[in-house]
Write a structure and sequence with these properties.
Oligomer: single chain
Shape: elongated
Largest sheet: 5 strands, mixed
Strand order of the largest sheet: 7-11-9-10-8
Number of helices: 18
Helix content: 40-55%
Distance between the termini: 76 Å
Radius of gyration: 34 Å
Length: 595
């Protein structure tokens, strides 16, 4: 755990009096270090024995301890605050490393394509150097030296760019990163390895190809292009497979993140605020605060629930159909009129408002999931593990981030357990309401700024990782698209240059502009179409592997794939069309005058 400062707090014992002898009450995490000779298994057995001696048997069977080391990267623990306190997930390190590697390889493929495409102008130079006595090894080293100089300059520019962009990266991911190559020269190990990899991937094939041509054939103008042309096409298809695949993935990830944020919570969340009754060093009385809020004219309804977030209840083992299964039931105290404000959909039975106050101590309202997992059929009149009778079943609602599945819930009436007070206010007067509430609480002795929380958007912070993922993927996808289309532009320029005389002759014979543009771009169009056909199933498989971790997810990804295909198609047609148009505009006389 990283922090800027640590502050100790002390409370008088009155805060804990209501739960002093309650072995199932607890609202924070405890940390402890085991002796080396004391195993986690022994700890669990001893803890269960202590609970059993104090009358806690069913819940003791579901007890578990979380390893602190499992809180990082692997998301192995069930902590409900894991997203806020601890590190990311290992899979995202793999994803970004993969995407970064793909961008690097796309750039390498561009270099190979352009180098082999320039072979017509360079191969005669190689042939003359061979006649002058240069060995093949010297020609290979010469080409590799050229690749090294370009890659080395690129690495220097990249390191400077990294240093300049580091503050923006830190603000995006919320982490402090430092790169001081003088104090920690080992940090240069990765850039040097990448430099060597780029030189090897980008330089070895062009060097071997350009140095292997037959001298006599080269000087007569017979250039063996078939194998080189096939490699160039393969690399072109591969880089556009990567380009279109990343664009499909980026749009799908953005769609899933928006889906989570906009998902219906299952209750009314418009114009509702919540106040914690436990303010700093002060426990507010619910009824007193309620009376004070009722005097504010902008406030329309007042109640108490744990919403929007429930802390988890004690884990337990329950016998269902003769089998002991682990089950955690989330429970929360609510006022009897809670549904007037939150408007949960009642599927069976009645809410607390329909019951006399004398019955409320022995009844609960549960959600659909609790009914299903506990096998309560019929649910109304059934007994819960807590011993209370079910009087109502409400439709499932989200009381945690939509990244987690809805768990069983029971709502009960117990005023001394109220920890929040919620109120609904008239729309359009938020600032005025906050000012009035702050003034009312100050009259009750609350010092400083009270904790007033807007219900709507409460869980948006839990989607921070998804928002960061979207932003990072947008940047990386833009980079790979830029690199891929720069390669397309350069390669089409070279191809059009080679076919200048062919185009000139076609124009003289009466070919239209549309026919010339189609002739120039036909091979590129088919290659891009092939790339997208390859990328669709591969990307779909990858997105399905990523999205399966979300219990609530998009079922139809086809709109995002269609958008990506259209975007790539429009960009490709724009680049190729404009380039071909200017090539077709050239005067045939200027092109053919030397023939």
């Amino acid at each position: 755990m990283q922090f800027d400062f640590v502050k100790g707090t002390t409370y008088d014992g009155s805060r804990y009096e209501p739960t002093e002898l309650d072995w199932l009450a607890g609202y924070s995490y405890s940390y402890f270090l085991l002796r080396e000779d004391y195993s986690a298994e022994k700890l669990l057995a001893d803890a269960k024995a202590i609970l059993a001696r104090n009358g806690i048997t069913i819940e003791a069977n579901g007890l578990q301890f979380l390893r602190f080391s499992d809180l990082y990267l692997d998301s192995k623990t069930g902590r409900y605050d894991n997203d806020n306190l601890f590190g990311g997930q290992r899979k995202y390190l793999y994803i970004f490393s993969l995407v970064g590697g793909l961008i690097l390889f796309v750039a390498c493929f561009n270099y190979i394509n352009l180098t082999t495409a320039r072979s017509i102008s360079k191969v005669k130079q190689m042939g003359i150097r061979k006649i002058m006595g240069a060995s093949r090894s010297k020609l290979v080293l010469s080409q590799m030296a050229e690749t090294f100089s370009l890659a080395f300059c690129a690495l220097i520019i990249a390191l400077i760019g990294l240093e300049l962009l580091l503050p923006y990266t830190q603000s995006l991911i919320g982490k402090t990163l430092e790169l001081n190559f003088l104090e920690a020269p080992q940090l240069l190990f990765l850039p040097i390895c990448l430099l060597l990899l780029v030189i090897l991937v980008s330089g070895i094939y062009p060097a071997l190809t350009l140095s292997s041509f037959n001298i006599s054939g080269v000087l007569r103008g017979n250039l063996p292009q078939s194998k080189v042309g096939m490699l160039r096409k393969s690399l072109f298809v591969l880089q556009f497979t990567i380009c279109s695949g990343l664009l499909m993935a980026a749009l799908s990830i953005r769609g899933q993140a928006n889906y989570l944020i906009e998902l219906d919570k299952g209750y009314n969340e418009e114009n509702i605020m919540s106040i914690r009754l436990n303010q700093e060093r002060q426990k507010l009385d619910y009824q007193t605060v309620r009376n004070a809020l009722e005097a504010i004219p902008q406030i329309e309804k007042i109640t108490s629930t744990p919403l929007p977030a429930f802390p988890p209840g004690p884990p337990s083992m329950l016998e269902l159909n003769g089998i002991m299964v682990p089950l955690t039931i989330y429970s929360g105290a609510v006022d009897k009129d809670f549904n007037n404000l939150f408007e949960l959909e009642l599927l069976e039975g009645s809410d607390f408002n329909a019951l006399p106050i004398s019955q409320l101590d022995s009844v609960v309202i549960i959600n659909e999931t609790a009914k299903k997992k506990l096998g309560l059929n019929p649910a109304i009149g059934s007994k819960m593990p807590s011993g209370k009778t079910v009087v109502g079943v409400v439709k499932d609602f989200h009381f945690s981030s939509a990244k987690y599945v809805i768990e069983p819930v029971e709502l009960y009436y117990k005023p001394k357990d109220f920890r929040n007070i919620q109120f609904g206010y008239r729309a359009g007067d938020k600032d005025g309401v906050i000012a009035h509430v702050t003034l009312a609480l100050s009259k009750l002795g609350v010092t400083g700024t009270p904790s007033i929380q807007e219900i709507k958007g409460y869980f948006e912070s839990s989607y921070k990782k998804e928002a960061q993922l979207v932003t990072i993927f947008d940047v990386l996808t833009t980079m790979v698209i830029l690199v891929a289309f720069l390669g397309l532009f350069a390669l089409s320029s070279f191809e059009n240059k080679l076919r200048e005389k062919e185009i000139g002759i076609r124009k003289v014979l009466g070919a239209t502009y549309l026919h010339l543009i189609r002739t120039l771009n036909k091979r590129f169009t088919w290659l891009i179409a092939l790339a997208m056909m390859i990328s669709i199933p591969l990307t779909y498989y990858g997105i399905q592997k990523w999205i399966v971790d979300f219990p609530y997810r998009l079922e139809n990804l086809s709109p995002f794939f269609s958008q990506a295909i259209i975007m790539v198609g429009i960009l490709a047609m724009t680049v190729l069309g404009l380039h071909s148009y200017f090539s077709a505009q050239k005067n045939p006389v200027d092109v053919l005058k030397n023939e």
